[in-house]
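Posted in: Protein Modeling Q&A

I'm a second-year student putting together a small comparison for a lab meeting, and my supervisor asked me to include a predicted structure for Fe2OG dioxygenase domain-containing protein. I've never done this before, so apologies if this is the wrong subforum. The sequence is pasted below exactly as I got it from our records. If anyone can share the structure token output, I'd also love a short note on what stands out.
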Amino acid sequence: MSGHALLDRVSEIPTVSLSALLDPGSLEMDVDASSESSSSSTNLLYEAVASIRHACLTVGFFYIKDHGVSDAVMQNAFDAIKKFFAQPTEEKRRLDATQSPLYRGYNAIEDGKHNCKRTEGYRDAKESFVIGMTEQHGSSPMHGANQWPEENDELKSAIEPYFEAVRKSARAVARGLAMAIDLPENYFLERLREPVAQMVMLRYQALHEVATNSEDKWLGCGPHTDCGFLTLLAQDSQGLDVFTGGEWVCAPSKPGHLLVNLGDMAAYWSEKASVKLKSTLHRVTNGSHARHSLVVFMNPDFEASMDIPDEHAGDSVERKSSGEYRSAGHYLLSRLGLMWLDDKS
Ligand SMILES: O=C(O)CCC(=O)C(=O)O
Ligand SMILES: [Fe+2]
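Accepted answer (user: helix_wrangler)
Welcome! Here is the predicted structure, written out as tokens:
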């Protein structure tokens, strides 16, 4: 495809500490200016919000640290999913995604059913295992059962704590994001009570494993933007490239960090806001080793309205499309081509 990605520009992807955003008290501390520690905490909060704003206006990607997901929880999740993928195909096929009305479960390489858009003439050399949210109180056709191995709960007990911890970090990001675009601090949080979150675990083949005997050309994951709200990624090795400033830039894994990016829903939702969020093109290239990644797609409650009240809108409000969808869930159904699920809502 289009040449090598640049590693020397990775510093353009900012890093944000979530410590002040994970702490719900830090905003109130602002009024208590007498304490030094409270003002340094407030500074940390505004620093985080300013870097999120900068990232959203420029690259559309940022690393997060102090995100509350422990190394042990992340390592367990990677170990468990590597073990799952290392099984024979017949074993993995017992959890085939085609058995699930929500397409959750295992997708083999040859199925080609992954979250990314297909690139004409190319196939993605990766397999995936997908889970999503189960319990919910409101009406959402995008919540439902996951498929797990029946014999033992090793996979489930390693993946669920990771998914939960990352959703918590995603809420902290959402809080910062609201402040970054001049919305009330809780604007997104109030719409993430029963989020339509999904976790996609991926194994990309090493180049030497990629089939060469067919007409097909292969990629890890073709260039695409994510269609949802926020994506939080952990990767065990390099492979992700981000298109920024007219070039592909490497976004390698960094110990202790997660990588966040904004999807098309965030861009669409912010059309009326004072700051427009950027959904950036990215791709994955296969390398000399198999690569694993854990991707959490954090989307709002199915029935969440994407309307932004006029008092929080930007000056030059030219509302193009943001009123087109009844709710965030309907936006997703339409983008994922799952409109038929709507009959159930
Ligand atoms: O595996 C990765 O690093 C990125 C995956 C991705 O972009 C996606 O699933 O949308
Ligand atoms: Fe993506």
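A couple of things worth pointing out for your meeting: Residues 154-180 form the longest helix (27 residues). The mean pLDDT is 87.
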